[in-house]
Design goal:
Elements (H helix, E strand, L loop, with lengths): L1 H9 L10 H14 L6 H14 L6 H14 L4 H10 L2 H16 L6 H13 L4 H17 L1
Organism: Marinomonas foliarum
Protein name: Putative tellurite resistance protein B-like protein
Pfam family, one: TerB
């Protein structure tokens, strides 16, 4: 019995992939896009547009998009992505991300309850005050109505 336990602890541990800041942002955008189980062309445009705004990847946006999509499919939780954001982002950057999440949710003209819940959960994991969550939602709605 003890030998079996010792052998168990000798097994190699899988290396955990380091998640880049850009991939974490892309994954959170994907989480919102996929929350209602419908992928709309406008949502995809919002995700890719937001990624272009915050990065200088240019043509590599599609690679990041697909990489994030597969990462979300394999993910068990949101924490692995929000931890990367918390470790490297300012409050202003988090607010910008929150607005980007709302833009994705609003892209199809309707905020699904699953999308709302997912953004609320992400906001909590980013330690954003509830007032910032509401402010981001309202300002994004106003901006998108003006467009």
């Amino acid at each position: 019995m003890i030998t079996a336990l010792k052998n168990l602890f000798k097994l190699p541990v899988e290396q955990v992939e380091q998640i880049s800041y850009q991939k974490a942002v892309a994954a959170l955008l994907m989480e919102v896009m996929l929350a209602d189980h419908k992928v709309d062309e406008q949502e995809e445009k919002q995700v890719k547009g937001f990624l272009r705004e915050i990065s200088d990847l240019g043509e590599d946006i599609d690679v990041l998009y697909e990489d994030a999509k597969s990462g979300v499919d394999e993910a068990n939780d949101l924490y692995q992505f929000t931890k990367v954001i918390n470790d490297g982002a300012t409050l202003e950057q988090k607010m910008l991300l929150l607005k980007g999440l709302w833009r994705v949710a609003l892209a199809d003209g309707d905020i699904d309850s699953y999308e709302d819940h997912r953004i609320r959960r992400i906001s909590e994991l980013l330690f954003m005050p509830h007032s910032e969550f509401i402010q981001a939602k309202l300002s994004t709605q106003a901006e998108m109505k003006a467009e």
